[in-house]
Amino acid sequence: MKIGLEIHVQLPTKSKMFCSCPTTGTETVNTHICPGCLGLPGSRPSLNKKALELGLTIAKKLKCTIPETTWFSRKTYFYPDLCKHFQITQHDTPIGFDGVFYLGKKPIRIARVLLEEDPGKIKRVGNGSSLIDYNRSGIPLTEIVTEPDLSSPSEAREFLSELLTEIKSTIGLTDSGERNIRCDCNISVGSERCEVKNVTGLKNVETCLKYEAVRQTKLIKSGGKIERETRHFDEAKRVTTSARKKEFEADYGYIGEPDLGIYHVANMAKSIELCESPLIMIDRFQKEYGIDEKIAKQIVNTSIELAKLFEKIAKITDVDTAQTWIMGTISANWKSFEKNFEKYDDIVTIISKFYKGDTTDTQCNLELKTLMTGVSAEKAASISADLDTIINKIIEDNPSFLIDYRRNEKAFNWIVGIIMKQTRGKYSSENIISAAKKLIEERL
Amino acid sequence: MNVNNITTINTTYRMFSAFTDKIESDAKFTFSVSDNLTSKSFETSAGSKILEGYRPPFDSTTIRRMKDVGGFLMGKTNMDEFGFGTFSVNSAFGIPRNPFDIERSCGGPSGGSACAAAVFDHVSLGTSIMCPASFCGVYGLSPSYGRVSRYGLIDCGNSFDRIGILSFKASALREYLPIIVGKDVHDPTSMIQPDLKLGGKKMCAVAVPKQIIDNKKVSKGVIESFNRSIESLKSIGIDVEYVDIPTLEYSVSVYSIIATSEASTDLARYCGMRCGPQDGDYTLKFDDYFTSFRSQYFGDEAKKRILLGTLIRMAGYVDKYYNKALRVRESIIADYKRQFERFDAIITPTMPFISPKFDDVSKMSTLDSYKSEFLTATPIVTGMPHLSVTCGYSEGMPIGLMFTSDHWNENVLVDMAERWDCSFDVKHAEVNA
To answer: For the domain with range B3-248+329-423, which CATH number is right: 3.30.470.20, 3.60.40.10, 3.90.1300.10, 3.20.20.140?
Structure first.
């Protein structure tokens, strides 16, 4: 089985690709529009440099060859959401080609990476009528095209998932909205392939490929012949249906976009520095520090900054100490700390004091909490004292609890629930759990 | 010219598709533009029914720049639909008539602008202005491609289109050119231009392509005038030399192939949605709606160019025609560039004949009409600046002489127009109103 994907990812720019309209979502339809992204007569495109930069970053990340120069093309077809009836895209000179992405040890070849504009959105309102929202018209997209190197629907999904994690961290795409990922899936079990257009989201990609694999296999077994064609995926029914035969495929009549110039991208690409990707970092953590894959993943996926802190602490103390504190107190208070990056080195100092034996486990813990939450040591102590009082009261108010708990430890979850309800988020669940455990154990 | 007569004058000459006679009192000057420049104050249709009633939400950069210095936009001038034509007869809103003989064409596509420049004492802006300048006996300056922002210019052929100046007065070129040139972030192709510097270098030596003179396509009257102007140029101290530029003869083909390819994509947006009339049958499927709408509202010449341009872009033809034309275009540019190592300008007649009578225009084949642009096609294809001046009269009709200079060298042309004006007696058309 051979599977190749064409993946469309929205690039996180502030303004659209060829005009200055904002890209941020808006509830109101047709508000983020101008003569440019409406394609009104006399309007002209003007390239958003940031989109080019992000596209090049992705191309570089995927180890593509970057050409000396690149330009845009017009892809002409008639559809109501495409206001100029040609899409500005890349045809002869994609910003990157002949790249590769490693899925574990397996190389998946990347045929090309290109930039293009998104059309508007069609909303069907029944009665055979549709409305069009042009807010999306002109949003920058990058299209990543793989060679048919994927060999199963599940592998395709895994590939997509890892690729997206990498790309998101590379270009700083924070929005995890899977719906923003659109895929054209090419699959063949025999000699001829079919293309399923515009599949949204990882799960749908896998479902649609599975369906196609079964459909094509059955068809061949029953003596039928796969015809080259474009198909649609019906999300509700989870099936693909024929859209048009390939031999009638539209001829897009590409010509160069005369309103935009030629861009010298080789030097621009050289000046782009790639940060270490999460996948590589996870891999390196395992090799360099000998830590568990699961733990490495947890640290890196929480935050790249947390991973960097881990490295700093490990350098000054040892891996075990770093792992204990990073996975324990530091992770627990990471959310409230995340905005205080200037206090980074203080954490390292606190832990090194403990490592040298200058402070005890408890002191170190308290100091870290104080630093990270910004609450003073006394207050932290008094807050925890308050918490102890509340927990004791709840235990005493519910005499049957200790009996239940002795019979079944799951009763613990029940009491934690009550404490959380009463304290209304004043304490972190970690603190509640550890305090409750301590107090209950004392009473047993 | 008394502006109170505009309505009467326009009834005779039909230069305007839309105009106003309520001139603002604080206006420093009035001007007109061809109807392919978008304007907030007038509907903009580019001579096409498919844009009838369209009121743009923005002024083109050129109009804005003219208004910024106190100009008052008096009217939009009739033109060939989207700029497709040589005689302004492909206009949906009236065919402009030549001020020297109303039975004859003003030339095209910006015929209305040349007519307005000849009849009113004002400057008119338009695209592809050489033929109209020649036929209406006015000065016409088309700056280098990329010199004047095309933001707000409705496309005819994106890689050729240029906005130029038409005026009866040679001095208007020096006056208005600096206003309309300059970088504009809304048009990336305008962003690489060097600053415009008027003055300095003067024209000393010009080249005449032998191919033009040997060509039987140029009428006798035009050749005689052209030869006399060579003598006039020599008399004011300019060296004239005959040179061989063999690639010249491919310009019309290159232009037709690339321009129709570009136009066929530009015109794709007109479909009865978003702008222009929207009175089609909404019960049709969208592609049937588009087809019926486009069949109804595009003129014949626009349809012809869409078909030709679309065919050229199709697989199997794109390399044979479009990509080849791009390469030939480079050769033509290189051939012209080589001449500018020794000469300041290349001169030819502007058009091979004087303005034809409308009767004769209707008898011309499409191919003959395309071919009649074989002299103006080269500067258009090369993107080089060019100037048309009146160099003689035949049967009472003006004849144009065209100078083409190297990219960005508008200064020698502006200077030449003024020198020519001093030594040649340019006639005003007698206006009947």
So the answer is: 3.90.1300.10
